[in-house]
């Protein structure tokens, strides 16, 4: 896929997230996100890190987390959330919206996936709608199911995903799960909340895996 196109999509999504965050109330920032143990503030802080994390930061973080990648990401986000307030984090997202800098080992589509998914992590628990652009979501979910990083291959064993609102499908399993492509993106990245609009025998199988 054309990297300039992906970068343009990512820039637009970053700016959209910044606008969305700007409309939140102070109490919203303290609310729980879809990421277990993470507040909205923590997720917003995490979103500033993709253009600001280098090899030294990552190596130090992994060592401190004793090799636990999820713990490392949580620690980095929580530390940054403690250092910067809402307005500062929003400003940082805007500041590097068009940057092509990525965290070590990240692919060009990873920042787009990050912002699409974490946008839902923030919006859904708050009861807010955050539409996701179809073309970008199709590209993002295609990357997620092909990448070893997200664990989607293991989650989707025996399941075929079929989007009901886009020309997209993946998987060769006997159990089909059908739903909006945005919800399928959440499911492939490990979010049980995405199952709300997903149906079919594959949905039950996925629910068991994600529980």
Explain the overall architecture.
By secondary structure, the chain is mainly alpha-helical. It has 2 domains: 124 residues; 77 residues, Nonspecific Lipid-transfer Protein, Chain A. The protein is 55% helix and 6% strand. It has a 3-stranded mixed beta sheet with strand order 2-1-3. Strand 1 and strand 2 form a beta hairpin. The protein is globular and about 50 Å long. The protein starts with a helix and ends with a helix.
Structural class: mainly alpha
Average predicted confidence as pLDDT: 96
Alpha carbon gyration radius:
17 Å
Count of structural domains: 2
- Spatial order of the strands in the main sheet? 2-1-3
Strand content: 5-15%
Helix content, binned percent: 55-70%
The dominant shape is: globular
Number of strands: 3
Number of helices: 11
Span of the ends, CA to CA:
34 Å
Low-pLDDT runs of 5+ residues are: none
Q: How would you sum up the major sheet?
A: 3 strands, mixed
Series of secondary-structure elements, N-terminal to C-terminal: HHHHHHHHHEEEHH
């Amino acid at each position: 896929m054309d990297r300039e196109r992906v970068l343009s999509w990512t820039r637009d999504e970053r700016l959209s997230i910044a606008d969305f965050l700007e409309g939140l109330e102070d109490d919203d920032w303290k609310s729980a996100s879809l990421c277990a143990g993470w507040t909205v503030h923590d997720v917003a802080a995490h979103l500033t890190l993709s253009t600001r994390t280098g090899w030294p930061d990552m190596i130090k973080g992994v060592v401190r987390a004793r090799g636990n990648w999820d713990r490392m990401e949580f620690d980095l986000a929580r530390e940054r959330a403690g250092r910067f307030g809402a307005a500062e984090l929003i400003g940082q997202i805007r500041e590097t919206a068009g940057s092509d800098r990525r965290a070590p080992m990240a692919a060009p589509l990873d920042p787009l996936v990050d912002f699409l998914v974490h946008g839902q992590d923030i919006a859904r628990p708050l009861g807010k709608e955050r539409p996701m652009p179809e073309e970008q979501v199709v590209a993002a979910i295609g990357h997620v199911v092909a990448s070893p990083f997200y664990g989607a291959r293991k989650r989707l064993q025996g399941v075929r995903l079929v989007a009901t609102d886009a020309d997209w499908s993946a998987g060769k399993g006997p159990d089909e799960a059908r739903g909006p492509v945005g919800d399928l993106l959440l499911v492939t990245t490990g979010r049980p909340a995405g199952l709300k609009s997903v149906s079919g025998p594959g949905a039950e199988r996925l629910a068991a895996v994600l529980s």
